[in-house]
Design a protein that fits this description.
β8 (about 160-165), α7 (about 175-180) and β9 (about 185-190) form a beta-alpha-beta unit. This protein is globular. The longest helix is centred in the C-terminal third of the chain and has 21 residues, at about 260-280. It has a 7-stranded mixed β-sheet, with helices on both faces. It has a 4-stranded mixed β-sheet with strand order 1-12-13-11. Strands 6-7 form a two-stranded antiparallel sheet. It is built from 13 helices and 13 strands. The protein folds into 2 domains: about 5-10 and about 260-360, Aspartate Aminotransferase, domain 1; about 15-255, 3-Layer(aba) Sandwich (Aspartate Aminotransferase, domain 2). The mean pLDDT is about 95. By secondary structure, the protein is an alpha/beta fold. It binds pyridoxal-5'-phosphate. The site of pyridoxal-5'-phosphate (PLP) has 12 residues, from α3.
Length: about 375
């Protein structure tokens, strides 16, 4: 295959050529002045995208490592946490907390639904000893975005910690860490940031840092206090993935040039375009209420008579379009189209055109043909 594939999975996302070029650059001293300047530049720009006055720490690990860092840096074994889960990433967040000894009280929804702030309020009221609420902003496995601002409002009112998995939302759809009162916000380089996998970003609020002081879960590599102390010196506590940092520096410059509002508008527009295109093919969205449909990933119910794996292979081999399948219990039931980071209408149009041609070959007989 000579042509670059149209990588339509929700991470890793396509990386622009100038970012790839930067990634290929020579190593530098990670305790030197040049890298210190880069670390500070990157940290300042990340603060803008987080819409926070707090430090944004960059860890060398995937997004899951960032979630683990948030948990072990704010909680103690025995703490009760309310885990709001609407899909497989919500379950992962809960199981990290459980692994470190938190008592997890689940607030689980049928996959395809969004969480409701009112349910969160009631759950906290029923169990007043809850210390923290874990929530996924954008559930990548189901293509649903939770009403995070509303959920944050009830969590703030109850004065609990709010830890947020924003891995597939931040930098692509609106999130205001300080205004909404979020206490830990985590994302990863390979999603909306147009950077290869390898870095996670984490920020804590003042409440989060206060919790850090007394948090007793075991931590070393992921100890956010060490990362904060190092950042003050323009460093990271451990040898960072320098190459990915080089790429991030360029990607953030691109994002700053485009502007946050323009980036959000582009994702909203392309999200809508994807959903309309999917429905025009006679297919059904997995998301049950389109008001909560994700603008970074669209999950589509696989129609009767079509096998997801066969469809994805056909899309890849004949049309050069890479789609994602379903995760966990959704395996074989849905496929997903990623549209975050480096994405324009043309990329989606090409994917939809390919779908229109591949579906009949995969055994699809449209009931409401275009
Ligand atoms: C991708 C993703 C993660 C983290 O996955 P990693 O593979 O560890 O980077 C976590 N949560 C959500 C919602 C994601 O989309």
């Amino acid at each position: 295959m000579t042509q670059k594939p149209n990588l339509r999975i929700p991470g890793p996302t396509p990386v622009p050529q100038d970012v790839l070029d930067a990634v290929a650059g020579p190593m530098v001293n990670h305790r030197g002045r040049e890298f210190a300047a880069l670390v500070k530049r990157v940290a300042e720009r990340l603060k803008d995208f987080y819409q926070t006055g707090q430090d944004v720490l960059t860890l060398t690990c995937s997004g899951t490592g960032g979630l683990e860092a948030a948990v072990v840096s704010t909680l103690s074994p025995g703490d009760k946490v309310l885990a709001v889960t609407i899909g497989s990433f919500g379950e992962r967040f809960a199981s990290i907390a459980e692994t470190y000894g938190a008592r997890v009280s689940p607030l689980a929804y049928e996959w395809g639904q969004a969480a409701r702030a009112e349910d969160v309020r009631r759950a906290i009221e029923d169990e007043p000893d809850i210390k923290a609420v874990l929530v996924t902003h954008n559930e990548t496995s189901t293509g649903v975005t939770n009403p995070l601002e509303e959920i944050a409002r009830v969590v703030r009112k109850a004065d609990k910690l709010l830890l947020v998995d924003a891995v597939s939302s931040l930098g692509a759809i609106p999130l205001c860490m300080d205004d909404w009162g979020l206490d830990a916000v985590v994302t990863g380089s390979q999603k909306g940031w147009m950077v290869p996998p390898g870095l996670a970003f984490v920020a804590l609020s003042d409440r989060g840092w206060k919790a850090y002081e007394t948090a007793k879960m075991p931590r070393f590599y992921l100890d956010l206090g060490r990362h904060r102390d190092s950042l003050a010196k323009g460093q990271t506590p451990w040898t960072p993935a320098l190459s990915i940092f080089f790429g991030l520096d360029v990607a953030l410059e691109r994002m700053t040039d485009e502007g946050m509002e323009a980036i959000f508008a582009r994702h909203a527009r392309i999200g809508r375009y994807t959903r309309e295109g999917v429905k025009a093919l006679g297919l059904e969205l997995f998301c049950q209420d389109e008001r909560y449909a994700s603008d970074t990933v669209t999950a589509v119910k696989c129609p009767e008579g079509v096998e997801v794996s066969a469809l994805r292979t056909l899309m890849e081999d004949e049309y050069n379009v890479v789609l994602a399948g379903g995760q966990g219990k959704l395996s074989g039931k849905i496929f997903r189209i990623g549209h975050l980071g480096l994405v324009e209408e043309d990329d989606i149009r090409q994917a939809l055109d390919a779908l229109a041609r591949a579906l009949p070959k995969a055994g699809y007989t449209p009931s409401m043909a275009r």
